[in-house]
TrEMBL record, chains A, B:
It comes from the Bacteria. Belongs to the PlsX family. Keywords: Acyltransferase, Cytoplasm, Lipid biosynthesis, Lipid metabolism, Phospholipid biosynthesis, Phospholipid metabolism, Transferase. It comes from Roseateles asaccharophilus. Pathway: Lipid metabolism; phospholipid metabolism. Catalyzes the reversible formation of acyl-phosphate (acyl-PO(4)) from acyl-[acyl-carrier-protein] (acyl-ACP). This enzyme utilizes acyl-ACP as fatty acyl donor, but not acyl-CoA. InterPro entries: FA_synthesis, Phospholipid_synth_PlsX-like. This is Phosphate acyltransferase. Homodimer. Probably interacts with PlsY.
């Protein structure tokens, strides 16, 4: 568990080679980010010749890495073959070595999700009390704020205990990044009634209610798919399969709707004229739904903070991921996750740790 | 298994009391439906005094039922207490009794889903080779056609064999109602690669590939959430939990988007003026996304055809459910489901019937 003094500058390590576009996107994003955050410092990781433009920038250090994990590289290649990849070296900056503090407090990469999670997990290890790291992102909701959703695909078969862990980690994330200290938590289900859902979901509901009653989190109850966009709760917890389907279904529908709007406004000279007049309105509408604004998913449950940008992000979107990572580090997300897990382990040891039965009672005390 | 001569009129039994609005919605819908379908006949089920308006309509018979299953009635009430409910009597019309053919070929109700499925299952029983009935609906896609999705909440913990059964029943539905004889089938997953997903999903992928190779269905492979709206496949198969979340998430996003559009167009006198000019465009856009046009979910796997309307349907929406039910009956959906299941049982008995191992080999031969 590393910690740091919040009066100190926050240092981010950036995998500058990752994603579909590499330095042509990451460098302009880093430059804009630096200009907006005078307290931030960047470690730019990648091939020095590709990052030469940034050599003279203030508050920047170039960290050489000779290899690149491509968007198609299997996890094995990222883990075992490309040991000097920009992704791996960027994550490595989060590790304290030989008593020296870590070089960076948070890492950002647009590299492929599977590889990023695998390398991060291998290098950083999971936090005590966490069985599986999870991926959390935000979606816009009708209240004008965001709904944080996790897990988004890291875990396909979850136990009730995993879902409780997700709720604790997600609560810490919302508190750190959105500034809401006691975010409300919804359990994604197919009905609001407690008798709904699979056995796992019903058991997760019990664990969450108990944790809520113990003051460990703010449990609202079951929510349904539409509640994500209603903004019924700050946080929505689900297993990775369901979360991934919900996210991609939403992306698909949003794409279809914007295509349809374009088609309808482009259909005739008259509708084109209407589009011209409606342009400011349509622009504001587009801005509110612009998924680039919500870029930057958190990998939670590791002994280090890693944020994942969309692979296809442009410079604006990548900068948002840097912003979220910066806020998370500045607001001590790692300590917050740790504190919540420890508090819950101490209050209800058997409930948080799904593997306690296998590992014996020392698990809880190790974590504490 | 009942069958009928397709040159004969199709008779629908309609639960006129179900849904949020009862006869004030169902009767106008029935009237419009009758006018559009000269070959159709209706059995209007409910309290005779509430249906008096329809007493003189041609091709209509009023069937008395003294009770109504409300939208909040628990399944137990619908099953055990309200034995003369319009829902139950409407479904009863699908049963052949004492050698006489069934009074109706398909039943439509806007009553509550849980009660409808339970009563239908109790009265009709499942088809041979089907472990669990499923609910299928359509969503619009970018190609301008529909994607049929099942299951939507009837089944929360599915085996690979259940998913194969859903694929077979869904294929029959698309063939009957959309007129595409060999609809393409996608398995909803979190990636296109065959190694993605839970063990159940991977096993379901194998069963579907085998069934595809044997010519029993047209298996495309894995699809992701966004493929529902891309229209990558005619049919998307998933377990009821995932399908329910995908559907409700989509509804939530569509609601948020239309709210945002309204807000943006209502923001200032200038944007209101733009809205006025853009009105025909926005109307066409709204029409394309109008969920009322897609109303009418099929309950599949029962020994009788039941269609479920949204409880909140208006007369236009309820008429669409009648239309879908009519098309299904006219195009022999029940025989089609039966034929596909039998063909698959004969080709690969162990694969379709998830319980074959428990029940012994007689299951397949019983079904055949």
């Amino acid at each position: 568990m590393h910690s740091y003094d919040s009066s100190q500058p926050v240092r981010l390590s950036v995998d500058c080679m990752g994603g579909d576009h590499g330095p042509s996107v990451t460098l302009p994003a880093c430059r804009a980010f630096l200009a907006a955050h005078p307290q931030a410092e960047l470690l730019l990781v990648g091939r020095p010749e590709a990052l030469a433009d940034a050599a003279a920038w203030p508050r920047c250090t170039i960290v050489a890495a000779s290899e690149v994990v491509t968007m198609d590289d299997p996890v094995e290649v990222a883990l075992r073959r490309k040991k000097d990849s920009s992704m791996r070296v960027a994550i490595q900056q989060l590790k304290a070595t030989d008593g020296a503090p870590a070089a960076a407090q948070v890492c950002v990469s647009a590299g492929n999700t599977g590889a990023l999670m695998a390398v991060a997990r291998y290098l950083l290890k999971t936090l005590d009390g966490i069985d599986r790291p999870a991926i959390a992102t935000v979606m816009p909701n009708q209240t004008g704020r965001y709904t944080t959703v996790l897990d988004l695909g890291a875990n396909v078969d979850c136990t009730a205990e995993h879902l409780l862990q997700f709720a604790l980690m997600g609560s810490a994330l919302v508190a750190a990044v959105e500034g809401r200290e006691e975010p409300s938590v919804g359990l994604l289900n197919i009905g609001e009634e407690v008798i709904k859902g699979s056995e796992t979901i019903k058991r997760a509901g019990e664990l969450l209610r108990d944790a809520g009653a113990a003051g460990l989190l703010n449990f609202h109850g079951n929510v349904e798919g539409n509640d994500i966009f209603k903004g019924t709760t700050d946080l929505v917890v689900c297993d990775g399969f369901v979360g991934n389907v919900a996210l991609k279904t939403s992306e698909g529908l949003a794409t279809m709707i914007s295509t349809m709007l374009r088609e309808e406004f482009g259909r005739s000279p008259l509708s084109k004229a209407a589009a011209l007049l409606a342009l400011p309105v349509l622009k504001r509408f587009k801005h509110r739904l612009d998924h680039r604004r919500f870029n930057g998913a958190a990998l939670l449950g590791l002994r280090g903070l890693v944020f994942k940008s969309h692979g296809s992000a442009d410079a604006f979107a990548f900068e948002q991921a840097l912003n979220r990572a910066y806020d998370a580090a500045r607001n001590r997300l790692l300590d917050r996750v740790h504190d919540r897990i420890i508090a819950t382990l101490q209050a209800t040891p058997a409930q948080v740790d799904g593997d306690a039965g296998d590992k014996g009672p020392q698990t809880a005390s190790q974590a504490a």
